[in-house]
């Protein structure tokens, strides 16, 4: 019983830390002016590989994205569907955790499919096909390149950092 409670507390703490880190990294990208525009590079999106290591990352990333989108003044459709894209990416990354090289694919696909219509309807960004190209490029950089660098850096310490 005590061990189960400790495991839940650990997962809650991990999720909270991941959410906080996501928010901070989003603010840094915003300050640098690379979190919005044609090709968006959010450092926080590199964290979307964390479900490969721990289930705690799924709620952590979701809450982090939700709060980051609210705090950075995103439009309501962006807050809702951007968070949904992050949740879907995190869930499918977790489900595919046996395949390390696929870790960044779910968040890249989720954002590539969900965010271009959001940019069109919430912000009037046209044409949608161009947003598809630029959002996908940004996600490949953030999740594919930076995320995989993070995955390989954390892999050595995974048994200490992520006790699932």
TrEMBL record:
The keyword Transmembrane applies. It comes from the Bacteria. InterPro entries: QueT. Keywords: Membrane, Transmembrane, Transmembrane helix. The keyword Ligase does not apply. It holds the Pfam family QueT. The chain crosses the membrane at residues 12-35, 47-73, 79-96, 103-123, 129-154. This is QueT transporter family protein.
